[in-house]
Design a protein that fits this description.
It is built from 5 helices and 2 strands; from the N terminus they run ααααββα. The protein is mainly alpha-helical. The mean pLDDT is 90.
Length: 106
Amino acid sequence: MKRDVFQAIADPTRRAIILLLATQALTPNALAEHFDTTRQAVSKHIRILTECEVVKQEKQGREIYYHINQKKLKDIETWLEKFKHLLQQRFNQLDDVLIQLKKNKK
């Protein structure tokens, strides 16, 4: 099943994992040390982030390291920018209406 990336990043624990991985690649055990939960719970979050390609895994020797998938985060940012632009247009339209209402009151 392909997961929705926005559902995946909606979870605060997964957002915290993304922030941790933004600075360096980490193993599941190293990630789990940052959370007051079981390693299995952290592994589930990692799996969800991996399924939506927000994080990638890389095997180094016997360890698996997880790191951010920059391309996927860029795709998310691009989508959010479009949404931000749309909201800005709406706010500008609202400003115009408010200015017009003020003028009509005088």
